């Protein structure tokens, strides 16, 4: 069984597709990836969806995203060969699991993807976790556990728009998996660069601007007092807490240079990850970094400086899985768990009160054939270790 995972995260940079082969063990299950940036008008619509969003506009954005996902799926399949199903994360436009009632909303029409490809699509992974009292995020930690459990405890850091941490116990250690969002990943750095470049640049490419600036300790200490950083896990966050408007308000009070602003926001990002690790995670032997932030050397250097006690390694170099493929790959795996009707141990991760199967299944033309393939998988296949 081969699955294509499609991920478009809070960075709103575009879509990452990764192909997972369920027949191959552990890290060898990664087959390849395909990425496509959002066209500028779609990216602007996604970013604007953070603000007030009339229902017609949301329905239109849902179709535009669906068409984009369908294009990416077709291009990825043309490049990497056929798959048995697609796992579609969708685009998060709201994430407020702690409101009353809590909610999380991912859009991007799965029906468009199923119609264009003829394949079964698993989508809407977060809602059932929220319905059962969980944060609905982060969902990738059980996959981190499956892929990366080692003799000694390890931490996986995903630097997407937001940053999430997974602590994986060493083999034989009975302590449970632990994970939560530490706060911003690239989102504030991207917002600062967008603001300073008047929208002509979307990220601090290779960390060049941040590297040219000086970290200003006084505002850094002030920013680190953000309420989210004090919240006790399980916790998850999104653009509701960290977005362009926060960066604009910081910039309005900024008394130093532009490069210093980016350098200090980069240091805040690294510092909040380091604090979260020290406050809420058991000791580990190393930290593996994935996500687009792994491509920003200034951010990686800031992490190394903030965590002198912990070896910080690029996950792609350790595993051979590209930094921006891992999350898409995780959703491919989660799609398989859904199709097999399995719930995963999220209690320590999302705070969910009961075990629930995550995802909605939209049967495609290949549904009967897919059912026959699924029937050949034994109960414990690709859950516990390699
Ligand atoms: N070459 C690079 N230099 C600096 N930053 C980069 C580079 N490549 C990716 N990034 C950062 O990674 C982000 C995308 O990361 P990604 O893992 O796709 O996040 P998300 O899941 O939120 O979409 C970009 O917005 C950018 O901040
Ligand atoms: Mg992305």
Automatic annotation (TrEMBL):
<keyword id="KW-0119">Carbohydrate metabolism</keyword>
<dbReference type="GO" id="GO:0097175">
    <property type="term" value="P:1,6-anhydro-N-acetyl-beta-muramic acid catabolic process"/>
</dbReference>
<keyword id="KW-0418">Kinase</keyword>
<protein>
    <recommendedName>
        <fullName>Anhydro-N-acetylmuramic acid kinase</fullName>
        <ecNumber>2.7.1.170</ecNumber>
    </recommendedName>
</protein>
<keyword id="KW-0808">Transferase</keyword>
<keyword id="KW-0067">ATP-binding</keyword>
<dbReference type="GO" id="GO:0009254">
    <property type="term" value="P:peptidoglycan turnover"/>
</dbReference>
<dbReference type="GO" id="GO:0005524">
    <property type="term" value="F:ATP binding"/>
</dbReference>
<dbReference type="InterPro" id="IPR043129">
    <property type="entry name" value="ATPase_NBD"/>
</dbReference>
<dbReference type="Pfam" id="PF03702">
    <property type="entry name" value="AnmK"/>
</dbReference>
<comment type="pathway">
    <text>Amino-sugar metabolism; 1,6-anhydro-N-acetylmuramate degradation.</text>
</comment>
<dbReference type="GO" id="GO:0016773">
    <property type="term" value="F:phosphotransferase activity, alcohol group as acceptor"/>
</dbReference>
<dbReference type="GO" id="GO:0006040">
    <property type="term" value="P:amino sugar metabolic process"/>
</dbReference>
<keyword id="KW-0547">Nucleotide-binding</keyword>
<comment type="pathway">
    <text>Cell wall biogenesis; peptidoglycan recycling.</text>
</comment>
<feature type="binding site">
    <location>
        <begin position="9"/>
        <end position="16"/>
    </location>
    <ligand>
        <name>ATP</name>
    </ligand>
</feature>
<comment type="function">
    <text>Catalyzes the specific phosphorylation of 1,6-anhydro-N-acetylmuramic acid (anhMurNAc) with the simultaneous cleavage of the 1,6-anhydro ring, generating MurNAc-6-P. Is required for the utilization of anhMurNAc either imported from the medium or derived from its own cell wall murein, and thus plays a role in cell wall recycling.</text>
</comment>
<dbReference type="GO" id="GO:0016301">
    <property type="term" value="F:kinase activity"/>
</dbReference>
<dbReference type="InterPro" id="IPR005338">
    <property type="entry name" value="Anhydro_N_Ac-Mur_kinase"/>
</dbReference>
<comment type="similarity">
    <text>Belongs to the anhydro-N-acetylmuramic acid kinase family.</text>
</comment>
